[in-house]
Amino acid sequence: MRFPPANIQLRRAQLSLVLAVLVPTIIMIVAGIILLATTSSSTTLVLALLILAGCATGLTGYILGSIFVGKGASLARVQNDFVSSVSHELRTPITSIRLLIEALGADRLPAEEKAKVISLLAQETGRLETLVTRVLELSKLETGGHMFARAPVDIGELVDESISAFDALTLSNPVKIATNVDAGLTILGDRSTLVRALVNLLVNAWKYSGDDKKIAVHAHAAGRWVEICVRDNGIGLDRTEKREIFEQFVRGKAALSGGAPGSGLGLAFVRVIVRAHRGKIETRAIAGGGTEFRLRLRYPRALRKAAARGGAKP
User: Fold this and answer.
1) 203 CB-near residues (< 8 Å, 6+ apart)
2) Mind listing the pLDDT tens digit for each residue in 184-233?
3) Is the alpha carbon torsion for 77, 284, 235, 268 positive or negative?
């Protein structure tokens, strides 16, 4: 027996909820109001009030049911988009691997070509393995499989470590990162995942900027938050893409049209890590071109007081 897709089932549930709860409730509300307006009997008045009270309960149930069904429909849509995106990303390396294996299986290639095909086969296999590993890591972070530490993290040291990791990844085209980090900033968090989030932002800034790359990292206190900003002079983002780019396998239109490599998972990692720290991530376009990503991480009161007393750590 075949069942319809989850999103269709949820739409049917929404329609059933309207027909079974909302319509009768509205009819009863009208009846109760008419009774209240036309009756002078205390018994009828009590009956009308009971009808309206029951209708209020029915409306509350309808609203709660609609919220849960709506969230279910949204989740089903995200799952469908995720499966579609994963299938698309996996198809390319799998197709390449199949074609390369067929070329080897034909056994008509000279030795030099065989060596080249084997090298390409290893490259595509590594690409596939990396993609699957990143998807599993992201799933682990999202589902609470990773235990986030809560230890003091010095923001200056965090930025320095992130830039060192970034430099190691961009040896082919190094770029100097401009920094401006206030002294004495310390938060409670998981150092390794925060470094990963910053490295992802730096690599994105490097990847989507032109030859004259200008990347900067700024960090300062803003009330109960510590703000870490990564700015670049790259291709920028369309205003309509500011939320979508944090979804898995979603990339900006400019990035796609420019042919820059990527799987669309980097910013999804950043969002999950920031949320796990009960923080926020914001993005804005920079006048003249470029993008700024701003991480807002909680600045505990005790650490703020320690910094105000001269930067002493707790």
Assistant:
1) 166, 169, 170, 266
2) 899 999 999 999 999 999 998 898 888 888 999 999 998 889 999 999 98
3) negative
